[in-house]
Amino acid sequence: MARFDVAARHLNFRLAAEELGVTQGAVAQQVRGLETILGLKLFERHPRTLALTEAGRGYVGNIRRAFELIADATDALKPEPRHLTISVTPTFASRWLIPRLPEFTEMHPDIDLRILATDRISNFQTDAVDLAVRYGRPPFGPGLLADLLYEHVIVAVASPLLIEKLGPPAEPENLRHYALLHDAHDFWPQFLDVAFPGGAATSGKNIRFNQTSLAIDAAAAGQGLALASLFFVTEDLGSRRLVNPFKTELRVEADFYLVSPRKPRHPGAVREVREWMGIAKAGARG
After folding, report:
1. Cα dihedral sign, 100-101-107-108
2. Which domain holds residue 41?
3. Which alpha helices (DSSP H) does 78-129 contain, by range?
């Protein structure tokens, strides 16, 4: 019947044979066999083409509906991908989440993870967000579940080549030669107060970015000193792309939390992503 359907679409045994990957004779022979079984003609044979008989037109319509039912039944057995939207800051997306996505897709190929990178606090209902990484302190709102993802421990980072050129910035007389790379949080005043408790050390050079990731990239390019959460730069410190030239670590009030509704729209997928992020977090620290 499949060969009859293809022949009916093309109205040509040769073209039907090319689509099916068989010989023209095999298609013609099967159609003749079907006509013999049914006891009626399905095609009118012409020198260069075929024409469906009235019986053939009615038969092919019914066959195609049957094929559609078979296809629908087959598709219904296939698991549909589970869509999940996670809201994160652009820096978290670029510095932590995106490098780990290949691992996630390998572990969970059936979850279609959609990443919403924004500094705006997304709304779980109006923005259709299932999970969010939020910077702050719980509680984040009624009906929300929050797990600590990372403590916000801030360190200074710079290119090792820049430090070799300008000298250790932890020495006040050297710090003035460095540009301070600021982000939207602007923790430099607090950091310098902790790093130099005996007096305010300053630098007359300042460059400001709206994203921490940009400040980190500028530091790696040798443009100055940046402040960043330790977990954002752990791999860079391990590879010596960046170094931490200060012993000072600044602990601030807010941390990074993984937040989701207590009654999520897709509980199974949300649970799996939460578990994976916990594993990825442990691997990053380990």
Report:
1. positive
2. 2-77
3. 90-92, 98-107
Domain end residue (candidates: 26, 52, 77) = 77
Based on the structure, what is the number of domains in the chain?
Answer: 3
Q: How far apart are alpha carbons 195 and 192 in whole angstroms?
A: 5
Closest CA to 271 of 114, 82, 80: 82
Lookup: tokens for 161: 């080549």
* Residue at token pair 């019986």: 55
In tens, the pLDDT along 27-39 reads 889 999 988 999 9
* Interior/surface letters 219-228, b for 16+ CB within 10 angstroms, e for the rest: bbeebbbbbb
Q: Where are the beta strands (DSSP E) in 129-261?
A: 131-136, 144-150, 153-157, 179-182, 205-208, 225-229, 250-251, 255-261
pLDDT in tens, 135-178: 888 888 888 989 999 999 999 999 999 999 999 999 888 998 99
C-alpha dihedral, 198 to 203 to 209 to 211, nearest 10°: -30
What span, in angstroms and rounded, lies between the C-alpha atoms of 148 and 258?
6
Q: How far is CA 4 from CA 18, 56, 60, 147, 234, in A?
A: 14, 9, 8, 61, 64
- Tell me how many degrees the CA angle 217-151-93 measures, rounded to the nearest 5: 40
Name beta bridge partners: 86: 115, 131
92 vs 242: CA distance, rounded Å: 18
pTM above 0.90, yes or no: no
Spatial separation of the C-alpha atoms in residues 18 and 22, rounded to whole Å? 7
Residues 159 and 233 in one domain: yes
Which of 19, 51, 77 is the last residue before a domain boundary?
A: 77
